[in-house]
Amino acid sequence: MSYTEEYKRKLVTADEAVKIVKSGDWLDYGTFMGQVVELDKALARRKDELYDVKIRSAARVSGPPQVALVDPTKEHFIFNSGHFTIIDRKMHDFGMCYYFPLLFREVPSYYEHAGCLDVAMIAVSPMDKHGYFNFGLNNVYSKKTCEMAQKVILEVNSNMPRVPGGNSECLHISEVDYIVEANWPLMPIPEIPVSDTDRKIAENIMPFLEDGCCIQLGIGALPNAMGRMIAQSDLRDLGVHSEMLCDAYLEMWKAGRITNNKKSIDRGKMVFTFALGSAELYDFVDENPAVASYPVDYTNYPHIIAQNDKVLSINNALELDLYGQVAAESSGSRQISGTGGQVDFVEGAYLSRGGKSFIALQSTYKDKEGNLRSRINPTLQPGTIVTTTRSTVMYVATEYGVSCMKAKSTWERAEALIELAHPSFREDLIKEAQRMNIWTATNRRCTCQQAAGAV
């Protein structure tokens, strides 16, 4: 049988494909732009026939899943996400989505511990002449998901680019049970506006970059600011080894800053596990030999990251305490995003020869009433999840400077972090540091009266 004939034999409608789902099943919807759309709609139409169907996903970008919208009581479908976008976050706020904690690099192995995965549903690019479907923008753990599933349904989207891989970027038709065709557009991610504060933080980090650095950027306004600043610099021969490929890299590439020629592994390639950004970015990665997608247990494992020299990792945070603990995923008990790859790259960059990792954040924010609040606080607010431990953090950057936390005692950390805080909050932070016994008479900002109080 030819691949074309096998394709036609396995091709069904979305409604026909989801008939294999039974009550009590565990399903996987894919990740990021690889999450299914037509299969989700078809499954939602079966609501009254099914109970206790559990679904895993990560980072919803194409609107809330229909299975959650049609069943807010969660009697029929329970939707779970390993990383929150604004869509997952709003669903969580209304009790329609649960978070599952993870280290991103480990997720492929989780399926070996989670028990049965009954059905994998993943969006892919059209089949090539050799019978392979490409996972496109979402290598991540797609191949492992399909390997562990009892049944595999592919939602073939004609708009999904074919992205060259290092490995695990494709699946053969012989490994597929059903095929459903779709034509939904790939959603471009709106650019987050860059503020003057973001630019100042980027300016503070720029002196740490040098020719031949291998860069990883998180998502948000600061990476956009860094990308533009690097594009306008005279830096040369930069490399990319990242979990996410975003438009900041495209801007640096077009400016000639990225060549990947100094990398120790995957030389000449921009390495990533998923891509999110503009339509131009999606066109850029399509059949482009300058890029290589890998599974997340390659891109995010610290010992692999560290094989490149001068890895420079920049990730965001929501809040820090005076011990240096980083909260990057929750505000109190409210889940905001997820662990993502922050811990992976903080560790990997530190292990890299000449590597540096930065936790970057604006020193303040405004609450709902318009009051200015500090993001650097004596302790994290109750319920807040620690993403990166104080022992793991290397550099912290705000608009007021950059400081290395390594080899600093608690009183040295408190002093350094207070100097990175907004001036309006520094005196109160000093008083709290005294109360917490992490302030000494030798601290630079300590007045004689404060020193006496500390004693």
TrEMBL record:
Ranges of residues in domain Acetyl-CoA hydrolase/transferase N-terminal: 3-185
Pathway it works in: Lipid metabolism; butanoate metabolism
Record keywords: Cytoplasm, Fatty acid metabolism, Lipid metabolism, Transferase
TM region(s), chain numbering: none
Residues holding CoA: G218, I219, G220, A221, L222, L318, G341
Molecular functions per Gene Ontology: acetate CoA-transferase activity
Record's subcellular location: Cytoplasm
List of catalytic residues: E243
Catalytic activity: butanoate + acetyl-CoA = butanoyl-CoA + acetate
Biological process, per Gene Ontology: acetate metabolic process; acetyl-CoA metabolic process; butyrate metabolic process
EC number: 2.8.3.-
SUPFAM superfamilies assigned: NagB/RpiA/CoA transferase-like (SSF100950)
Record Pfam families: AcetylCoA_hyd_C, AcetylCoA_hydro
Entry's Gene Ontology cellular component terms: cytoplasm
Boundaries of every Acetyl-CoA hydrolase/transferase C-terminal domain copy: 277-433
EC main group: transferase
Major location category of this protein: cytoplasm
Family: Belongs to the acetyl-CoA hydrolase/transferase family.
The protein's role, per its UniProt record: Coenzyme A-transferase that converts butyrate to butyryl-CoA.
Protein name: Probable butyrate:acetyl-CoA coenzyme A-transferase
Native organism: Desulfocucumis palustris
